[in-house]
Amino acid sequence: MKQVKIQIPSLVENIRVVESFIDNSKDTFHIDDDIYGNIMVAVTEAVNNAIRHGNKFDKDKNVLLSLQVQDDRVTFEIEDEGAGFDYDNLLDPTAPENIENPGGRGIFLIRHLADEVEFNKDGRHVQLTFLLPTASDEDEERHSTINGAEAPAAR
Prior knowledge:
4 helices, two-stranded antiparallel ribbon, 5-stranded antiparallel beta sheet
Protein backbone atom coordinates (compact mmCIF):
# COMPACT_ATOMS: atom_id res chain seq x y z
CA MET A 1 0.00 0.00 0.00
CA LYS A 2 1.28 3.46 -0.92
CA GLN A 3 0.37 6.50 1.17
CA VAL A 4 0.85 10.26 0.81
CA LYS A 5 -0.24 12.98 3.27
CA ILE A 6 -0.42 16.76 3.19
CA GLN A 7 -1.62 19.32 5.71
CA ILE A 8 -3.00 22.70 4.67
CA PRO A 9 -4.16 25.78 6.57
CA SER A 10 -7.91 26.46 6.31
CA LEU A 11 -7.79 29.00 3.49
CA VAL A 12 -10.08 28.61 0.45
CA GLU A 13 -7.16 29.40 -1.88
CA ASN A 14 -5.54 26.15 -0.71
CA ILE A 15 -8.10 24.23 -2.78
CA ARG A 16 -5.56 24.78 -5.61
CA VAL A 17 -3.00 22.86 -3.55
CA VAL A 18 -5.52 20.02 -3.20
CA GLU A 19 -6.18 20.01 -6.96
CA SER A 20 -2.41 19.77 -7.60
CA PHE A 21 -2.16 16.97 -5.02
CA ILE A 22 -4.87 15.04 -6.89
CA ASP A 23 -3.27 15.72 -10.30
CA ASN A 24 0.15 14.58 -9.05
CA SER A 25 -1.41 11.49 -7.47
CA LYS A 26 -3.17 10.66 -10.73
CA ASP A 27 0.15 10.72 -12.57
CA THR A 28 2.21 9.04 -9.84
CA PHE A 29 -0.21 6.19 -9.15
CA HIS A 30 -1.68 5.93 -12.68
CA ILE A 31 -5.25 6.63 -11.59
CA ASP A 32 -7.64 5.96 -14.43
CA ASP A 33 -9.24 8.87 -16.29
CA ASP A 34 -12.66 7.24 -15.76
CA ILE A 35 -12.60 7.97 -12.02
CA TYR A 36 -10.35 11.05 -12.01
CA GLY A 37 -13.26 13.50 -12.41
CA ASN A 38 -15.22 11.91 -9.57
CA ILE A 39 -12.15 12.04 -7.34
CA MET A 40 -11.41 15.68 -8.18
CA VAL A 41 -14.96 16.87 -7.46
CA ALA A 42 -15.59 14.73 -4.35
CA VAL A 43 -12.24 15.34 -2.66
CA THR A 44 -12.14 19.09 -3.34
CA GLU A 45 -15.74 19.35 -2.07
CA ALA A 46 -14.82 17.46 1.11
CA VAL A 47 -11.77 19.69 1.69
CA ASN A 48 -13.85 22.79 0.98
CA ASN A 49 -16.40 21.60 3.57
CA ALA A 50 -13.59 21.00 6.08
CA ILE A 51 -12.23 24.53 5.54
CA ARG A 52 -15.60 26.28 5.41
CA HIS A 53 -17.85 24.37 7.80
CA GLY A 54 -15.41 22.39 9.93
CA ASN A 55 -12.63 24.89 10.63
CA LYS A 56 -14.77 27.97 9.87
CA PHE A 57 -12.02 29.56 7.73
CA ASP A 58 -9.67 29.67 10.77
CA LYS A 59 -6.22 29.79 9.16
CA ASP A 60 -4.72 28.53 12.44
CA LYS A 61 -6.62 25.28 12.00
CA ASN A 62 -5.47 22.74 9.46
CA VAL A 63 -7.03 20.20 7.14
CA LEU A 64 -5.20 16.90 6.82
CA LEU A 65 -5.52 15.13 3.48
CA SER A 66 -4.14 11.66 2.91
CA LEU A 67 -4.23 9.22 0.03
CA GLN A 68 -3.82 5.47 0.17
CA VAL A 69 -3.51 3.42 -2.99
CA GLN A 70 -4.14 -0.32 -3.02
CA ASP A 71 -4.48 -2.73 -5.94
CA ASP A 72 -8.24 -2.32 -6.29
CA ARG A 73 -8.97 1.07 -4.70
CA VAL A 74 -7.79 4.54 -3.89
CA THR A 75 -8.87 6.07 -0.57
CA PHE A 76 -8.72 9.72 0.42
CA GLU A 77 -9.10 10.80 4.03
CA ILE A 78 -9.95 14.38 4.96
CA GLU A 79 -9.87 15.56 8.56
CA ASP A 80 -10.53 18.98 10.05
CA GLU A 81 -10.14 20.45 13.54
CA GLY A 82 -13.74 21.62 13.91
CA ALA A 83 -16.59 20.54 16.16
CA GLY A 84 -18.01 17.99 13.71
CA PHE A 85 -21.59 17.67 12.46
CA ASP A 86 -24.50 15.23 12.42
CA TYR A 87 -23.89 13.54 9.07
CA ASP A 88 -26.79 11.13 9.58
CA ASN A 89 -29.44 13.88 9.73
CA LEU A 90 -28.81 16.08 6.71
CA LEU A 91 -31.59 17.62 4.67
CA ASP A 92 -32.25 15.96 1.32
CA PRO A 93 -31.26 18.58 -1.27
CA THR A 94 -33.50 16.89 -3.86
CA ALA A 95 -36.65 17.27 -1.74
CA PRO A 96 -39.03 19.91 -3.17
CA GLU A 97 -38.80 22.08 -0.05
CA ASN A 98 -34.98 22.17 -0.32
CA ILE A 99 -34.50 22.67 -4.07
CA GLU A 100 -34.20 26.45 -3.70
CA ASN A 101 -31.65 26.28 -0.84
CA PRO A 102 -28.25 27.52 -2.02
CA GLY A 103 -26.29 24.99 0.09
CA GLY A 104 -26.63 21.45 1.29
CA ARG A 105 -25.56 19.61 -1.86
CA GLY A 106 -21.90 18.87 -1.03
CA ILE A 107 -22.34 15.70 1.02
CA PHE A 108 -25.07 14.52 -1.36
CA LEU A 109 -22.65 14.97 -4.27
CA ILE A 110 -19.77 13.28 -2.44
CA ARG A 111 -21.94 10.26 -1.59
CA HIS A 112 -22.89 9.87 -5.27
CA LEU A 113 -19.39 10.27 -6.70
CA ALA A 114 -17.40 8.04 -4.31
CA ASP A 115 -17.92 4.29 -4.17
CA GLU A 116 -17.75 4.32 -0.37
CA VAL A 117 -18.09 7.22 2.10
CA GLU A 118 -17.44 6.81 5.81
CA PHE A 119 -17.63 9.52 8.47
CA ASN A 120 -15.77 9.26 11.78
CA LYS A 121 -14.85 11.46 14.75
CA ASP A 122 -18.30 13.12 14.88
CA GLY A 123 -18.00 14.12 11.22
CA ARG A 124 -14.54 15.69 11.49
CA HIS A 125 -13.03 12.85 9.45
CA VAL A 126 -14.33 11.52 6.14
CA GLN A 127 -12.97 8.62 4.14
CA LEU A 128 -13.75 8.50 0.41
CA THR A 129 -13.03 5.28 -1.45
CA PHE A 130 -12.95 4.96 -5.22
CA LEU A 131 -12.73 1.50 -6.76
CA LEU A 132 -10.14 1.11 -9.48
CA PRO A 133 -11.03 -0.64 -12.72
CA THR A 134 -9.72 -4.19 -12.82
CA ALA A 135 -8.01 -5.73 -15.83
CA SER A 136 -11.21 -7.71 -16.56
CA ASP A 137 -13.25 -4.45 -16.53
CA GLU A 138 -10.86 -2.92 -19.07
CA ASP A 139 -10.98 -6.05 -21.27
CA GLU A 140 -14.78 -5.98 -21.13
CA GLU A 141 -14.85 -2.35 -22.24
CA ARG A 142 -12.42 -3.07 -25.10
CA HIS A 143 -14.65 -5.92 -26.29
CA SER A 144 -17.77 -3.77 -26.03
CA THR A 145 -16.74 -1.84 -29.14
CA ILE A 146 -18.15 -3.59 -32.17
CA ASN A 147 -17.23 -2.59 -35.73
CA GLY A 148 -16.03 0.81 -34.55
CA ALA A 149 -19.34 1.57 -32.80
CA GLU A 150 -19.59 1.80 -29.05
CA ALA A 151 -21.78 -0.91 -27.62
CA PRO A 152 -23.03 -0.68 -24.02
CA ALA A 153 -20.76 -2.63 -21.69
CA ALA A 154 -22.49 -5.26 -19.59
CA ARG A 155 -22.13 -4.40 -15.92
